[in-house]
Amino acid sequence: MKMAPVLTHNHLQTVETLVSTASNSSDPVQLNFVRQLDEAREEAGIANPILLFNQSSDIWAQDFIEPGYASMPGPNGPISIRVILRSAQSTRTGGRQVFEQLRGPGIGGFQPSSGSGSGFGHREIDSYGNLETIPPYTSKSGVSYKAGRIIMGKHFDQLPAKALLDFLYAQQVQSPLILEAGWLLVGHVDEFVQFIPYDNDLGFTISIADTESAIELLKDLQANGHGDTLAMSFETPSEEEELHVFGLGLTVSDILANTTFADVNAYAQRHINSNLQILLSEIPLNPADVIRVPTLFHDVGNTFDLFWGSDGLPPRTDPVIEGERKLMSVYPASINGIVVEKRYLSPKPWGPVVNGTDVLASAVERVYSRAGMSVGWIDDYLSHHVGGGEIHCGSNTLRQTDLVWWN
């Protein structure tokens, strides 16, 4: 098994266990999120109980670990071991749980080297929300990726930690494909792209954030006499609650009249289109099969560093480059959800409500129905959205490990 590559999971592999964080059982908002996630687990038919990290208050279970596996042929099918990768964020104590809580019979751990390029501090580029995996395919150039291929995001002139990239390239069979995520404040690929099962020759398609369909949705509301409807239906728990989000209290017409907002989303769409073209130049996918998920963004610059606080370490995000921006999603972004076969667990978007119906949620249900997927909603507004992420960021999945990659 020492000679077998360590592989990362893709969304076509069966989910065996959902993972999240109990946050030391001290945060009622996080525990409410866990309760909803557990209910969604049961509805999705996942038999194993939810696995909760319990030795750290780090709620971003997607980011400090990446579940992987190594496997080889056996007399009765593949023999495998789980290998949990710790993020290359040397001061992120949540990652210690790879060894303190997970490592044991059948589960190993990977610790990035402590040498140069190991990822000192807590740089967001080194979080594992910035690592996703294309399901198995043969590229347009004829390269076969039988275990799928990793995608990661660079931040313009910044790459993820060398210690991690060296490790991933050394595995050879999933050699990372690099996209551009520097236009986002947090800068993770899971903020704008995912891969979902689909009835085509590949067995999957690309699901990607799309600002144009979201803006058209708002324009349709305005044209039909609903311009005075609140653009966001979430209600702040109390007047004293300060939420670092855009859109609360604004109407649909307010949003559409904001020229800066229009410029920001055109900027986002240019980067999304560029990333999509990189993927389509690699994957033999019919562009008509791409699932476009309505999503809107706003520009936060580097102001969120004040929200995260200063711990004396290097900043978690890079400075804004001249001519570029740092964006976050306005609504809880439905692209950032959990794929459980034909069931999709999505952040509740809290879009405009007309005649008792959240029109943004209805639009999300329609686009995922193209892939034959049903949508279940989880409210992560206070637990994760206000902190810069969504339910995918706050969870993880242990998936099947019997994929045959060696033929």
Automatic annotation (TrEMBL):
* Signal peptide from the UniProt entry: none
Superkingdom of source:
Eukaryota
User: What region holds the Protein-arginine deiminase C-terminal domain?
Assistant: 1-407
Q: Which organism is it from?
A: Aspergillus pseudoustus
Descriptive protein name: Protein-arginine deiminase C-terminal domain-containing protein
Check the record and name the Gene3D superfamilies matching this protein: L-arginine/glycine Amidinotransferase, Chain A (3.75.10.10)
